[in-house]
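explain this:
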Amino acid sequence: MRRRGYNKEKSHEKGMFMKDRQELTGIYQASGRGFGFLIPEEGEDCFIPPRADGGAWNGDKVVARITEEDPQAGRRVAKVVQVLERANKTVTGVLERQDHTLWLRPDNERLPGPIQVFTKRKGVRPGERAAVAITSFGGGRTAPMGTLRERFGPADRRESAVEAILYTHDIERAFPPAVLMEVEGVPQAVEAAALEGRLDLRGKTIITIDGASSKDFDDAVSLEKDETGRWVLGVHIADVSHYVRPGSALDLEAFERGTSVYFADQVVPMLPVELSNGICSLNPHVDRLALSCILTMDQSGTVVDHTIAKTVICSTERMTYEDCNVLLAGEDPALAERYAHILPMLKDMAGLAKQLEKMRRNRGALDLETKESYVICDQEGKPVDVALRQQGESEKLIESFMLAANECVAEYLNRLHKPCVYRVHEKPSDEKSQALRTMVAPLGYDLKNADSPSLQKLLDWAKGKPEEGAVSMMVLRSLMKARYDEDNLGHFGLAAEYYCHFTSPIRRYPDLMVHRVLSALLDGSLDKQEKKLTTAVQRAAVQSSQRELAAQEAEREIEKRYLAEFMAGHIGETFAGVVSGVTRFGLFVSVAGGVEGLLPVEALPGGGWHYDEAHLTLLEDNGSGRYTLGMPLEVECAAADPVSGQVDFILPGGTPVTRKKREEEPKERPGRGGKKSPRKPGKGRAMHVPKRRNGGRKR
């Protein structure tokens, strides 16, 4: 009698199949519900079933082996066989005490927990938010363990959540002692020796234009005509490289930070305030060192000549966007009289900026009018209002001039074959283009190509329609992430062949590196330094891209907490909004001011709803109701949690629904332009740099 279940031929086939099974390297993404996904370096995602994670935590780099194909799910199934690199060496969460033992419940629900905490510190209390350095990731019946590193205060306060977010992203508020010692030796006035060999522009009418609350002025502008009637535009940038020397404690710290971080009414600066707000800032009526890009343009705005020079300037006026917009609109005679000495130049600037904007549009630059919210805080730092940033004429003016200078410097260094940290933005991938095509199809738009003209045509088509904001966001999310690179790869969003960041060295390290190359070129020392600068440029491009991503993520997460705290004071109020995201578990709705919250599917009327992923729509089971992207919708604020940043909506007069733990509330939600996967530096979703502290954008 043949043994039951034994088949020699099938057993041999199975053994051969196991031997040939493919192994993939990628990032493990936990769901928080036992299962997860492998996001491979190439190819489609793989499903990781429960108990097949191999001890991996969310974000770990792993090796996984394909075990089977799942025809129902339409994806491969795999199990983790090796953890290559741990992503969660430090974890933040809330301290709890059980049986005289201290534990940490992680903030991130995708991480396993609780984590046993060891500490010799006195006064550590349950209910505090803290950070723990992981000493053992556990496994089997062994709990993960760690040592207490930092305490942030009571876990039920927004402030502790903000500090934990900064800590998670390696954003330090305080500067090390070595940096502070160096700062003490930095002069707070321009010394006579520093003027040697510089072009003296102190007799020129030069102004800064920034937000009313700004204190660090890294760019100033001037405009006049030469003897032939051509425009001479001066873009004068703070010469931070004169004060921050390579290899100094200041330089090493600026490199580590990479960028300043802005949120609500606060800033974590890249440089100490003695530099960022002091000697490096182009404050009015005082001498300041600068690197100037002086562009000669014809009446159409075409650059016909340029000069890049080390200069000394004395800003004539510190102007605000608000005042400049009023002046250009001619709405305040008293203000016009106060600034009569610069008003003609300001009007000329506005005219030239429009020409530059027209040229960019004609060559294919995208006009993405994204609406950003910003939080208004009282003197105690509490959010009291939320508003949308409106880009006025003066904001566009400064943006146009900064773009022109950035392009000029990038082309100049490229043509000389000198090292440069380029700001690159590659064209959308086929995957992202197809995703966008699928998303806009239900709106009635047939996107055949994802080139610049086609994308701009889509944006123009959506203008004035209810779905305008949603379409703009979908296009933005379909784009590749702008990043820094040593190679000139062009900038798709700006349709620029050459582009770098030159105009903000106070708050961005890549700009400081570009200044160093220019300074060495101008003083004749580049030949001796070129090898060293080339290496420094390579390191700065990688580090700055990584730190920019960390800053963006931290800013977004912190802003959510402030917005939720603001909404906590408006529970029960109704708001006009628009559907900004559609998922199987509900609708994300953006209301006036840019606050976004979740309207759970359980809070919708009717018997039942199902998600039509292909059309980004929630459909009622009986076919009588539907909700889709861009649809106007009135909602009522049901709950808001400043600690988690979550805002929950219901329909007016509806019953609040307790938010359930869901495995998919990723940073790129379904129906919002991307699959649920972490991104490598440079492979994200937006072409813009972090929002500027004064409301403008400098790409």
Notes: Residues 1-20, 661-698 have pLDDT under 50 and may be disordered. The CA atoms of residues 384 and 636 lie 19 Å apart.
